[in-house]
Amino acid sequence: YAAATASKRLFQSLLLLDPVIFPRTMYEDADSAMFDLSFILRRKNQWSSVDDMISRLEKRDTFSRWPKDTLRDYCTYAIDENYKLLCAPEGEASIYQSGIQPDSNIYPLIEKSKFIHDIPIHIVRASLGESANPFDWSVTTPDLVKSFKRGRDTQLKNSRHLFPMEEPDI
């Protein structure tokens, strides 16, 4: 967002890791793009310790591919001193829901940008998939690259939306 709306060039280049930018049509009809966010709202919000959080998450498919040190860092910094999530499930759900509203449509900002078209932009996307788990596949529209004059698109094979944590050395 900052790169698209800036009054001066802020970046030499951009690397977008599976950005949650939907096809234009989803922003035009937000009612048809409603998500079932109940799985987020059911997330556990309180833990007894960092180790408690790790032991539960490492068994879940979403986190099973993460290196142990990455999972430990995630758990250590995701909770407060009382072992409660810093980003409550309600807050996370509202991020997803507001992200598809018409006023979240970034395409007009990209088109009007004075500087974003002058820099190389590399979009790295996770695999497209059919899994019921939205963290298993990319929601980034494959056409996003066409919005940038110097855009480049890479789709990783056998990767999920959380691939930066699964493969931190990539």
TrEMBL record:
Organism lineage: Eukaryota, Metazoa, Spiralia, Gnathifera, Rotifera
Organism: Adineta steineri
Name assigned to this protein: Uncharacterized protein
Top-level taxon of origin: Eukaryota
